[in-house]
Amino acid sequence: MWHVLTTDRTTTLCGVEKEDEPRRRDATDRHCFPCMESFQEVVEAG
Known about the structure:
By secondary structure, the protein is mainly alpha-helical.
C-alpha cells in the first residue's frame, strides 16, 4: 500500500509507522485513502 510520508520519513500522514507496513512484492499497488485525503487537504490549503 502506498502511503504519504511525513517530512521526517518515519511516519505517514495516516499515522502508520513506516516499518509497520509489510512489504509484499506480489500485491497490487493500492493507495492509502486517509493519506491521500490528508495530502489533498494540504495541497488545497497551499
